[in-house]
Write a structure and sequence with these properties.
This protein is mainly alpha-helical. The chain has three domains: 105 residues, no CATH class; 76 residues; 108 residues, no CATH class. α10 packs antiparallel against α11. The longest helix is centred in the middle third of the chain and has 37 residues. The chain is elongated, with a radius of gyration of 35 Å. The model has no long low-confidence stretch (mean pLDDT 88).
């Protein structure tokens, strides 16, 4: 798992914990916390060495780890086995209710009726002839009651098994230990601190930061992406904030065309390919190579507007 993917996973987990702030822990949240240590084992740090702004990822990643540790240190996450059993019991309440209801309202009356007829059969055989109407009638009632009891006893076992199977399937929740999760986060934090040189990394990728104005005209004013104010856009493009631009529908070919043009014009040569790769991934551009070189006859008005903005920006760079 890439570091940026794991960073998204941490942010997602943090969001769920915040939403759950005033409530008891749910099974879904415990499941996520139980699986969390496995995500650390699959995580790779190598992406930091390839990222345009490793310091930004580095600092934000450390910050979310610290926030998660603080959140999980809250006493309500320190669940002992008794609390977890309560959660399990709550999740089995329907199956438990079905069993108890059937036992009390159906099986027990059938059992009592069968036992009462059984006792009467034993006593009446001393009073009535075996072929008498009374004995024949009683034996019929006894036989019917016995069959009913046997059938309900089978149903009762099924209800009981459903309850216990559900309970058993949740016993893995007893493995939950918030301290072990905090320890894993601490281990991860220590590993990151060994890469502290990323903290002050300040590499610039733009030949001239004024080019961000041209990028804003292309991406936002031409409506290739959903509206974002200039300050937020500039901070994201300059690598001061995590990129969260959202493309508009049907703009892939224009975004691909823009990425190629911007990479060749405004981005430093040593950073150009990596920048393009990250932008292609961020906007999820498919068949990128097929979209970057339309013939003049196939260029739309938007292609021409992109060309015009690029040419004007290029002229500024040359002055």
């Amino acid at each position: 798992m890439k570091l940026t993917e794991h960073f998204d996973l941490l942010l997602n987990l943090e969001g769920k914990l915040k939403k759950n702030e005033q409530k008891e822990l749910t099974k879904e949240l415990i499941d996520e916390l139980l699986n969390f240590p496995f995500s650390i084992e699959c995580m790779e740090f190598s992406e930091l060495f390839e990222h345009i702004r490793p310091n930004l990822i580095y600092k934000n990643y450390l910050a979310v780890i610290h926030r998660l540790k603080t959140t999980l240190s809250d006493e309500r996450y320190d669940l002992d086995s008794k609390k977890i059993y309560e959660i399990i019991d709550g999740m089995c309440s329907l199956q438990k209710h079905n069993y108890n209801y059937h036992y009390k309202n159906i099986l027990l009356p059938k059992s009592n009726n069968y036992l009462e007829l059984n006792g009467r059969l034993e006593s009446w055989c001393m009073r009535y002839d075996d072929s008498s109407f009374e004995m024949i009638n009683l034996r019929n009632k006894h036989s019917f009651a016995k069959q009913e009891y046997k059938e309900e006893k089978i149903k009762s076992k099924e209800f009981y098994d459903d309850w216990k199977d559900k309970e058993k399937s949740l016993f893995y929740l007893l493995k939950f230990n918030v301290n072990s999760i905090i320890e894993r986060l601490t281990d991860l934090e220590i590993q990151l601190l060994e890469l502290k040189f990323f903290e002050n990394y300040t590499g610039e990728i733009f030949i001239n930061l004024e080019a961000i104005n041209d990028l804003y005209k292309i991406f936002v004013k031409l409506e290739l992406v959903k509206y974002i104010n200039f300050l937020d856009f500039a901070n994201q493009m300059a690598g001061k904030e995590i990129m969260c631009l959202e493309k508009n529908k049907g703009t892939d070919k224009y975004i691909a065309y823009s990425i190629n043009k911007i990479g060749a014009t405004f981005i430093k040569k040593e950073s150009s390919e990596n920048w393009k790769k990250i932008m292609i991934h961020h906007f999820d551009i498919k068949d990128y190579e097929k979209k970057i070189n339309p013939s003049d006859d196939n260029k739309s008005e938007i292609h021409k507007e992109i060309d015009d903005i690029i040419l004007k920006g290029q002229a500024v760079l040359l002055n």
